[in-house]
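Ligand: iron/sulfur cluster. Inputs:
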Amino acid sequence: MSNLSYLSPVPSLAQRFIIVYTENIRKGACVMRSIYRVRGGCTLCAMCYYVCPTKAISLKPNVTAVIDAEKCIGCGQCADNCQAEAIVRVERKTDIH
Ligand code: SF4
Ligand code: SF4
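Predicted complex:
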């Protein structure tokens, strides 16, 4: 018998949430009011990079962490885990009124 039972093809509840949420945002069915951005004070500790569930954050050497607004689902995990308090929530600019 295979010992790969831990590689379940069934996504977890958190994985399903991210899949449905990002797909709805992509289709415009769900309009997020806010996303997150990195401001000054980033020490490039990489904590935000590791906790982001959508891999929206990249680390630019000698610069700062950068958040891809298209991938950010506004969960706030990055800001909650940033010891430097370098991540802030901002309003998403949208054409929908
Ligand atoms: S957690 Fe904060 S200090 Fe660390 S890399 Fe991300 S933005 Fe920079
Ligand atoms: S708010 Fe959530 S999805 Fe957006 S960059 Fe931070 S951890 Fe990633």
